Amino acid sequence: MKINPYQPDQSGMAYSVGTTLDRFIKLKQSDFPFASGELSQLLRDIALAAKIVNRETNRAGLANIGGAFGQTNVQGEEQQKLDVIANIRFMRALSKGGEVCAIVSEEEDAVVDLQNNSGKYVVAIDPLDGSSNIDVNISIGTIFSIYRRKTPIGSPIQQEDIMQPGSEQVAAGYVLYGSSTMLVYTTGFGVNGFTYETSLGEFFLSHPQIQAPTSGTIYSINEGLEKDWQDGIKSYVDQCKENRFAARYIGSLVADFHRNLLKGGIYLYPATKKNPTGKLRLLYEANALAFIAEQAGAKASDGKRRILDIVPESLHQRTPLLIGSAELVDEAMHHIQLAKEQATI
Ligand SMILES: O=P(O)(O)OC[C@H]1O[C@](O)(COP(=O)(O)O)[C@@H](O)[C@@H]1O
């Protein structure tokens, strides 16, 4: 991926690598002529919570905050202590500033109505993604989507404020707690990545205007579930092997997505017997990454349609996910279509 430190973005503004996140947010506010600064403050609040969660994940082994919490979440998954800690930290950060009226979280059964009708934004969040990797020191992440509410400010939140298609996102991003900690986000004007400098407690612009390679030679899928795959997925993965693609699967969506975004590749989590509608959640996993992917020139689909076009029907609804370099996603879709046609012959 080429980095042009002074590459002007879509609004013609040029940012140098090393710009602090705070300064970048301030400068980018001009992308929104009538901006009130609330979205900017919300992004800052998310960054602050990410710094705290970063500290907690770094010292999890020492602070006895590894391991299970002893409860299951609405998905029936065993909550890890860090899942709960991250959820609390982001909940606090999102509810303190007054910009947010409602939160959808992987760790909360129902919508968290902040009883703040003057709040303009709805946030959907996966506080800690990659739970199966928390205790074994492998990269994990946070994923967030931000929507402007549909109903008038001052009125109670309604279903229509929550059940918005991904195409309505005003911002989305993820934090990767890896060998270094990064925050990558978009507000619809390109994708920018910031690296956390722990000693200074600051995020600095390190990856301006990320553009995903249109193709690549990496595929990421849990091959242990091959028996459950539909024919189109099987034939596509066979073709990847035929072409000597590298199989890379960390088992943390954020980490797999981030690698493929920078190097070129495709991540696939199709429907399986255990998860006939896919495993990943539309509102707080797939939508955010799909927005970032498209802003970086990549693609995201459920195998039939664009992820961002899906109108949600339930809070924790799952979706199959094919996401990554545009040509690879197109190729996978082609295999799925072909298999469907062959099945009807
Ligand atoms: O273990 P599997 O079935 O391959 O699933 C791994 C996938 O599930 C996830 O862990 C789901 O996310 P959570 O950890 O937030 O539940 C993704 O990060 C990852 O890509």
Automatic annotation (TrEMBL):
Its main location: cytoplasm. Mg(2+) 2 binds at residues 126, 129, 285. Substrate binds at residues 129-132, 222, 249, 267-269, 279. The gene is fbp. Residues 213-334 form the Fructose-1-6-bisphosphatase class 1 C-terminal domain. Its cofactor is Mg(2+). Coiled coil: none annotated. One of its GO terms (biological process) is fructose 6-phosphate metabolic process. GO terms for molecular function: fructose 1,6-bisphosphate 1-phosphatase activity; magnesium ion binding. This is Fructose-1,6-bisphosphatase class 1. Keywords: Carbohydrate metabolism, Cytoplasm, Hydrolase, Magnesium, Metal-binding. Mg(2+) 1 binds at residues 106, 126, 128. CDD domains: FBPase (cd00354). Pathway: Carbohydrate biosynthesis. It comes from the Bacteria. It is found in: Cytoplasm. Belongs to the FBPase class 1 family. Binds 2 magnesium ions per subunit. Residues 20-208 form the Fructose-1-6-bisphosphatase class I N-terminal domain. Its EC number is 3.1.3.11. Pfam families: FBPase, FBPase_C. Homotetramer. It catalyses: beta-D-fructose 1,6-bisphosphate + H2O = beta-D-fructose 6-phosphate + phosphate. It is an enzyme of class 3 (hydrolase). The keyword Transferase does not apply.
